[in-house]
Structures are given as structure tokens and as C-alpha cells.
Amino acid sequence: MPLKRLFDTQVKATRAKRERRKEARPGELLQAALDLFVEKGFAATRSEEVAARAGVSKGTLFLYFPSKEELFKAVVRENISGRFSQWNDEFVQFSGSTADMLHTCMDIWWSRVGDTQASGISKLMLGEACNFPELAAFYRQEVVQPGHALLARIVQRGIDSGEFRAVDASQTAFSVVASMVFVMMQRHTGGVCVPADTSFDPVAFLHHQVDLMVRGLQAPPTEAS
Amino acid sequence: MPLKRLFDTQVKATRAKRERRKEARPGELLQAALDLFVEKGFAATRSEEVAARAGVSKGTLFLYFPSKEELFKAVVRENISGRFSQWNDEFVQFSGSTADMLHTCMDIWWSRVGDTQASGISKLMLGEACNFPELAAFYRQEVVQPGHALLARIVQRGIDSGEFRAVDASQTAFSVVASMVFVMMQRHTGGVCVPADTSFDPVAFLHHQVDLMVRGLQAPPTEAS
Amino acid sequence: MPLKRLFDTQVKATRAKRERRKEARPGELLQAALDLFVEKGFAATRSEEVAARAGVSKGTLFLYFPSKEELFKAVVRENISGRFSQWNDEFVQFSGSTADMLHTCMDIWWSRVGDTQASGISKLMLGEACNFPELAAFYRQEVVQPGHALLARIVQRGIDSGEFRAVDASQTAFSVVASMVFVMMQRHTGGVCVPADTSFDPVAFLHHQVDLMVRGLQAPPTEAS
Amino acid sequence: MPLKRLFDTQVKATRAKRERRKEARPGELLQAALDLFVEKGFAATRSEEVAARAGVSKGTLFLYFPSKEELFKAVVRENISGRFSQWNDEFVQFSGSTADMLHTCMDIWWSRVGDTQASGISKLMLGEACNFPELAAFYRQEVVQPGHALLARIVQRGIDSGEFRAVDASQTAFSVVASMVFVMMQRHTGGVCVPADTSFDPVAFLHHQVDLMVRGLQAPPTEAS
DNA sequence: GATGAATGAGGATTCATTCAT
DNA sequence: CATGAATGAATCCTCATTCAT
Asked: Which of these ranges, A3-17, B162-176, D18-32, has the smallest mean pLDDT?
């Protein structure tokens, strides 16, 4: 094989590998950034660290994201995509009691969000909302709105079926959200939300909350019966 | 008027203006710091800004608070922890039902903390806890611990009086805290916690929450058995 | 006694006391400054500390000395005054051998300078000479010159009496000075001049030095004897 | 020339300039720091000045040295401690008399340290030791300890060979150090250690000192006994 | 004269961002 | 495209000095 061919081949191979990596780059960077932002917050995460964790150099990071702020936005956007439609479908088909549905809802949330880095993003979002208003708006629309709608729908189902009293479903949905927010905060602040000498089991808490809520919602025993 | 009196008065007058300012300084600085911390977060608030807003120079700030972290601690003490004992006292004397007590508790919290910049401090703390572990520990000890204890005590009172079922008082206290956290977050993130098209009335929410909780806690009717 | 008289008396008494103190002020400040400069060096000594140690307020210090630099100069000038003439006289009358004279010289230096804050001033002077050239010139003239002359005279006495070889008396005087400088440095630097695991006894060192020097200076045994 | 060779060469050429600069940086910075520390002292030298003199920006300095103190340590290592082992080796091989060895020692010290900015560092250290205890400890360990050990070894060699009386080698080593300290002080204080009207030749002084010392150390003639 | 509250220039250090290679 | 050396704006904190009282 002539030298030129060989060289060309090498170059191609090199380029091919590079391009494969190149396409993966943004994703690797976003993942690294996600990890670090969740772990240390926006301000405390250094650009260089993100690059290092993604296995590239500082300069490369800025090749893909024009600034740290844009990187942050990209991280949030990337990780906030709506898994709600899928989620919603699961609930549409649910056939048990609404009380069970709420417990199931918490379990699913915990396994898919709460116990995941995804909860870190939400916590981060809440922390930095003031500094990134457009991002906050985006989050509100993509996460908060559908989430709240889903929960309100569940509560409404309970009302419609006679399991629950006729309460304000939207207001009640916030009760569920509040529990989630509390758990996320607790998890991603090193436990500041709970006294140092008190243990906190998120799953137990979530079910305690649902239990309390369900009892509170259940229609009072009809006198006649 | 005897000469001595006159002399004394003059001395007092002479020192008065200065000292009045000196005594007012810490308060002015704390207020400025509170405003800015709540508005921009701890890390993003520059010491000099705090000084400027209090109408003094950079150096003066450090005359009263040895460091930015100590300033923050002082803000927390001034606005939150300092109020617990007084708060606690009010509840010790409370003579109504525990359900009423919880409603009152929310009202008081709302008027003294939630509807105040003090709630911004708590939100802030949650946002920056990871980056300032020492402050977090301080907050946990000075605010979270006594706050949680106070709420747990109220729940326990309900159990002891037979108003409530025998639940885990500590766990249940978190329900109340979660509501407060939710409200604080909503308030200090420009409303991200609630869908854009949905109105949110914090006071209504808090009472809705207490109402739900109280119903959920109330001992089931004993007659049937 | 009428009030006015009484008051006047008080005022006078107050004034008297004040004036007495006032006259003492510069001295007290200089003493405080001496202590601190010797202990911590020029840069590390804070003006306020000097004032505090002298029992006055920061402002008062600047009433007597226009700046920290001027204070330093005053301290050096104050503490460097020539005790050399007196010293010289003592030696003129000395009747023993020159070897003894050198040993005595060291003893006197040690008790009057080396073991005193006065040595701190010299050490300070050497450290800050570049930053205070005029002061250095003053020191050179008031301390170094007469000191060196005194020592050279002693060596010359030994030569003249035949105790010592005919060496360069001036050069040899530096040998003595070098020992003193070494001791001062060791004493006022926390011992940097000597390995950490080695003990250093200044007096023993000084006499060891003189002993070595004297032996080195002694005229070689005249062959004839 | 094969293509590969050519390509390699280009790559080398491409990186050459950058890397040459990068490799030169620490040296340039150390030189700048040495100059400035010697000229103005440690505390009075601003980091930015060092950078400026080395022709780089403030930030670059901290790219190579994590703090001003570490920079100082590096300067000491580069200019003093780093040279001891080499120095020591030279003496191990020395075959002449110990008297000659001491004279040689002074010559070497003078040419490598005394007549160099390295002596400025030592002088500096003595001036600032109190304020930077950590640096002082470092210097003591890295410079004073090995230096003193080296000198004591030389003296001991003379004793062992019968050239010198049986004196305390450690104590005697200080005699040599004292001479060096004196010379350094004289050199780096604008000459304060010597009267203004007296000339001072460091080399002559050093040899005068060694001469005196050697004579003082030489074993007394044994014939008489 | 004294006081001590207030000042603000100054200095070490960090880190997002740029750009020559 | 990728790199990583270089930059310099930004920020906390200190302390000599001033000046209203």
C-alpha cells in the first residue's frame, strides 16, 4: 500500500473517531455539567471541572457552549423534557382506588425523579430561578404545569368517583407537590430541612403524607349508612 | 439648673448623634444585607453593595461584622432564630383546640416569616446550603431544629388531648414544614412552583393544608365500634 | 466652698492630671511602639495596637506622630541614643589584659544591649534599613560608628601592648560585631539562625567567639623564649 | 524526508514556541520574585509586580505558584537549598588541609551566595521571620540546618585530622555562619553595619575571619609538654 | 486635646473566557 | 476542531488615616 493511501486512511480513521466523539461531545458535557451542577450548585461549579469530567479541555467546552450560563440553560432544558405524556398514559389506565393511585404516584415519582438526578435539577432550578427568569418560565411550562395538571386530574378522579370530598382539586394538587419539593430540598441540601438528630426516610414521609391527605379527603361517613 | 446638670447634658448631647448612629448601624446593615441576600443570593451579593445600601462604606461593614458569613449568620439570628422563644411562649399559653392552634400557627408564621423577607432567608439557605456547609449547620441548629420541635410539640398536644390519632408527631411536623417550604419557594422564585395560568393564594393554601391535615389526623369516630 | 471654686478645682485637677499624662504620652507611645515593633516588626504592627498598649485611642497616636513611619523613626531615634561615651569611659580605665577586656566587653554588651530590647531595635533597623535610608544613616552614625571605633580601640590596645599580633584593628573589630549581629538575629527571629534541633546559648557563644579570636590574635610564641 | 518525519517536525515546531515559553515561565517568575523580594522585602512586594516584571499578568503567576508564600519557598529552594547537595559533594572530595577547606568554603559561598541575590533572600528571611513563621521553619529546615551541618562537618574534619584542637564543632560552625550573616547584612542594608567612613571588603573580611579562626583552632605546639 | 466611627485605597486570590498554536 | 496558557475583571478583607463630636 502506497504511503499516501496509508496516510489518508489514518486520517480518515482519525477523523471518523473524532467525529463520532464530536457528536457525543455535547451530551458528555451536559452530563458532566448536570452531575456537577447538582452536586455543587451553579456558582460553585467551575467550567474547567465540567470540561475535565467530560474528558475535554477547558477551551472545548466554550466551543460548544458560549458561556457557563448557556451551559446551565442547556443542562436544564436537556433534563427537563416531558416524560409527562408517558406518565399520564400510565395513570389513565390505572384501575384501582384513587388512594392507591396517589400512593403509586409517589412511588413512581420517587423512583423516576426523587431518587434521581432529575430531582437535583428541580432543586437547582428553584435555587436559581431568580437569576435565570427565562429558564424559570421554561421550567414552569414544561414541568410544573403538566405535573400539576396530572396531579389535579388524579384528585379530581377521586372526587368524581365519590372517594373524596368535593375539594379544590388544584389546591389539593399542591399538597402533593409540596411533599415532593420538601423531599427534593432535603435530599439536595445535605439534609438542612430536618434537625440533625432526626432521621428522615423520604419514602416513608411521602406515604405518610399521602395517607394523611387521603384520610383528610375521604368523604365523611354518610350518616344514613 | 445646676452647673453639673448642664455639663452632663452637654456631654450627652455631644455624644448623642454619633452614638445614635452607631447603635443604628448594625440594624441598618442587617436590613440592607437581608434585602440583598434575599434579592440576589448569598454568593451573588457583594459586601460593598450591602454597605452601600446601608449608606456606609465598605470598611464600615467589617467594623460591625467580621466577615460576610458572620453577617449572614447575624441576619438569620435577627430574622428567624431570635423569634422562636417568643413564638414558643405564645403557644405554651394557647388554650383552644389543637386544630385551631395549627391554624393560628400558620397565620403567625405567615405574618412573621412567610410574608416577610425572613422567608427569603430560608429559601436562600436551601439554595446555597451545599456551598456553605457551616452556614447550613448553623441554620439547621438555629432554625430547623427549634422550628421542628415546636411543631412536633403542637402535634403531640393534639394526640395527648385525644383530638388526634396516635401518629408519629415528628413525621407529621414535616407535613407542616413542607407546606411552609412550598410557600417560601413559590414566593421567592417568581412563582415557578405553580403553573402560570393558576392563581396561588398562600394563606388559602396554608389553611387548606392544615384543614386537610387536621381532618386526616382526627381520631375516627369511636361510636361505631 | 462655692460651687464655682469646687468646679474650678476639679477642672484644674483634671487638667493637671491630663497634662501630666499628656507630657508622658509621647514616651508611653514610644515604649508601646518599641515593644510591638521589636516583637512583630514594622509592617505587622498595627497602629491601633500601639495606641491600645499605650492606653490611648487610635486618634491620639496620630496627634503625636503624623504617621506610622514617623513613629518608627522616633522609636529608633529615641532608643539609639549614645550610651557609648559612658561605655567608652569604662574601658579607658580598664586595667586587665585585653583578652579579659574583650570578654568583659561581651558581658557588658549582652547585659546592656543583647539581652535587652535595644538589640531588637538594631535587628529591626537592619531589617528595615532599605525602607528608611535616612534612619539607617542616623543609626550608622550614632551606633555603628562609635561602636566600631570602641571595639577597634580595644583591639589596638592589645596590639600596642604586645598581647596581639599586628592585625588590622578595624577589620578585627568586625569580628566582634559579627558575633553580636548573629546573636541579635538569632534572638529576634525566633531562632532561625540555628538548626531546630540544636541548642544555642548566646553567652556561651559570645565567649567562645572571643576565646577563638583571642587565641587567633595572640602573638605567636617568640622563638627565643 | 518521509512524510511522517515532516509531519512530526511540524507538530514539534507548532508546539515549540508555546512550550518553550511555558517551561521558561517558572524560571522567569522566580527571577522576578527574587529581584523584588530582595529589593523590597516579602510583605512589601506585590504579587502583581512580580508578574509584571516577568512580563505576564497577575493571573499567570498563580498558575505556576499557588500563593505568594509558595512562591517565596520556591525562590528559596531554587536559590539556596537546591544547591547544598552539590556543594556538599564538592567538599567530600576535598583533599587539602581543613584550613584551606575553610578558605575555599568562604570563596564558594561568596561566589555562589554572598555575592548573589541569594544572599538577599537570607537577609530577607531574617527580617521577616517573625511574621511568617511557616516560612521561617521552612528556611530553617531547608537552609540553616544543612548549612550548619556542612560547616560543622568541616570543623570536625579538622579536629579528626589533628589540625584543630578538640573544640565544640557545632559551636564553632556558628563562627563561620556569623561571618556570613554579617556580610549579608552589610550588603543588603546599604552598608549600615560598617561606619560610613570605613571601607569594607567582604572577601577580605571573610578570609580575615577564617584566618583568625583557624589560628585560634590550631592545636597549640606540643613541644613544650 | 481626645476619641473612635468612618473611610477607601490596596492587595491576594479566583475563574470565566479568549486565542495563538 | 482541540488545546491549555494567558488574561484581567471581580471580590473579600485590612488598616493607616481622617474628622465630627
From this structure: A3-17
Q: What was the pLDDT predicted at D122?
A: 92
* 3-class DSSP assignment, residue B218: strand
C-alpha grid cell for residue A96?
Answer: 384501582
Return the C-alpha torsion angle B93, B96, B100, B101, nearest 10. 20
At residue C38's C-alpha, the angle toward residues D49 and D182, to 5°, is: 75
D49 nearest nucleotide via C1' and CA: E11
Question: How far does Cα D63 stand from its chain's mean position?
Answer: 26
Q: Say how many CA atoms lie within 13 Å of C214 toward its Cβ.
A: 19
**B192 three-class SS:** coil
Q: Please give the full DSSP string across chain A, using - where no structure is assigned.
A: --HHHHHHHHHHHHHHHHHHHHHHHHHHHHHHHHHHHHHH-TTTS-HHHHHHHTTS-HHHHHHHSSSHHHHHHHHHHHH----HHHHHHHHHT--S-HHHHHHHHHHHHIIIIITSHHHHHHHHHHHHGGG-HHHHHHHIIIIIHHHHHHHHHHHHHHHHTTSB-S--HHHHHHHHHHHHHHHHHHHTTTSTTS-TTS---HHHHHHHHHHHHHHHHBPPPPTT-
Which protein residue has its CA closest to C1' of F5? D22
C-beta atoms of C211 and D216 within 8 A: yes
Domains with residue ranges and CATH for chain B: 3-71 (1.10.10.60), 80-224 (1.10.357.10)
pLDDT, residue C12, reads 45
Grid coordinates in use for D20? 518553550
Radius of gyration of chain B (CA): 22
How far, CA to CA in Å, does D20 sit from each of A99, A187, D17, D29, D32? Answer: 72, 49, 5, 14, 18
Q: Band of the pLDDT at B138, cuts 50, 70, 90? A: confident
What's the 3-state SS for chain D?
Answer: CCHHHHHHHHHHHHHHHHHHHHHHHHHHHHHHHHHHHHHHCCCCCCHHHHHHHCCCCHHHHHHHCCCHHHHHHHHHHHHCHHHHHHHHHHHHCCCCCHHHHHHHHHHHHHHHHHCCHHHHHHHHHHHHHHHCHHHHHHHHHHHHHHHHHHHHHHHHHHHHCCCECCCCHHHHHHHHHHHHHHHHHHHCCCCCCCCCCCCCCHHHHHHHHHHHHHHHHECCCCCCC
Q: Tell me which of B94 and A168 has the higher pLDDT.
A: A168
B144 contacts B155 by C-beta, under 8 angstroms: no
Q: Do chains C and A touch (3 or more CB pairs under 8 A)?
A: no
Burial of residue C91 (number of CB atoms within 10 Å: 0-12, 13-18, 19+): middle
pLDDT over 70 at D158, yes or no: yes
Q: Which of B174, B179, B216 sits opposite A216 (nearest CB)?
A: B216
| A82 band by pLDDT with thresholds 50, 70 and 90 | low
Q: Is B198 helix (H, G, I), strand (E, B) or coil?
A: coil
Q: How many CB pairs under 8 A join B and C?
A: 4
**CA/C1' separation A165–F17 (Å):** 74
Is residue C8's pLDDT more than 90?
A: no
Judged by phi (left if over 0) then psi (alpha if -120 to 50, else beta), residue C162 lies in: left
Q: What is the pLDDT of residues D56-111, one digit of tens each?
A: 999 999 999 999 999 998 998 888 887 777 788 888 888 999 999 999 999 999 99
D222 touches chain C (CB under 8 A): no
Q: What is the pLDDT of residues C162-190, one digit of tens each?
A: 999 999 999 999 999 999 999 999 999 99
